[in-house]
Inverse folding.
């Protein structure tokens, strides 16, 4: 029996990185909002590599991560295969603080599918104490805006990214500044 | 020798709750951005109870906290004395994940003072694993805007608080929703 709450997961939406595997054995990583509602876990996933992979092998690992660069990279590009480690069931992220592997039940939609998540295996690698860093939080918000920008190309998203960048430059550490640099590089491609 | 990095404190600004004590023995709590620059710790503190207390007894405890309600309450009102516990040196927060007590060297300014922080005692009470919650982060940003609003009374801050509230309602758990409710109550007084 896996105690989801031991992983700090609560009602609402937890931002994690889903790792999945393609029929060809290629690992993929993407940030996903994992919903918990009345104790049930699910994700709403747009048409994407993550969804294709889940449709071919109905399993996903939720990686709990505190590295801002991993968030930006997995949101806007591909993560190098060297950053994964392979468990029997699925690839997970080497640098995750912990992970939960789920069996997935997918209700396919036209643009967005609802994926129910049933925990089957879990691992806590590292517990830590960490104060709030507004710079880290701003990287996450900037990444959300950047994923919208790359699809919709509306200038307002750049304005919001620039706003969050001022918080990163003021409050963030080296990791957060590297993450923002990468974010700007990836959306300017 | 206290290893500050063991507390997750890095270059940049960490958001913690400072607890201090008045000459009359009354404990006070307030959110403070704790700066680390080239390995040195300091805070920039506006004229406030926290500053008065540090000027009378030059010591402060940085409490690492993950309770959104504590952040809102300590930013916009007073925390009940029952939420403190008293160490030999200073009061700290019962619900802190950990704390560091600092000797303070204060360079008094007219409106804002720079307080150098020299660690003298520390305690890690609880390490944990926790995914990112955008609702939690939004409570922190809303609290920053709310502290500006109560001083400057400009409507733009309410607009920003309302924006962050939409994120809290979408992504937050019960604690985050309670914190936002309290925030709105406290700024409407």
């Amino acid at each position: 029996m896996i105690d989801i709450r031991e992983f700090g997961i609560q009602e609402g939406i937890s931002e994690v990185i889903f790792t999945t595997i393609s029929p060809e054995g290629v690992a993929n990583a993407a940030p996903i909002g994992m919903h918990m509602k009345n104790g049930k876990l699910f994700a709403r996933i747009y048409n994407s590599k993550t969804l294709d992979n889940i449709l071919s092998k109905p399993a996903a690992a939720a990686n709990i991560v505190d590295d801002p660069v991993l968030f930006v990279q997995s949101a806007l590009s591909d993560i190098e295969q060297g950053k994964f480690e392979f468990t029997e069931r699925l690839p997970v992220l080497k640098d995750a603080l912990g992970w939960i592997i789920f069996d997935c039940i997918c209700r396919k939609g036209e643009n967005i599918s609802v994926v129910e998540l049933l925990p089957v295996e879990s691992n806590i690698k590292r517990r830590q104490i960490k104060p709030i860093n507004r710079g880290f939080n701003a990287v996450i918000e900037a990444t959300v805006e950047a994923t919208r920008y790359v699809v919709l190309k509306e200038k307002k998203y750049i304005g919001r990214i620039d706003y969050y960048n001022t918080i990163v430059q003021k409050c963030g550490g080296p990791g957060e500044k590297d993450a923002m640099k990468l974010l700007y590089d990836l959306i300017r491609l």
User: Anything to note?
Assistant: Strands of chain B lie at 12-21, 27-37, 40-46, 59-64, 84-86, 91-93, 98-107, 112-124. The longest strand of chain B covers residues 112-124. Chain B has five helices and eight strands. Helices of chain B lie at 49-56, 68-76, 134-152, 155-171, 174-188.
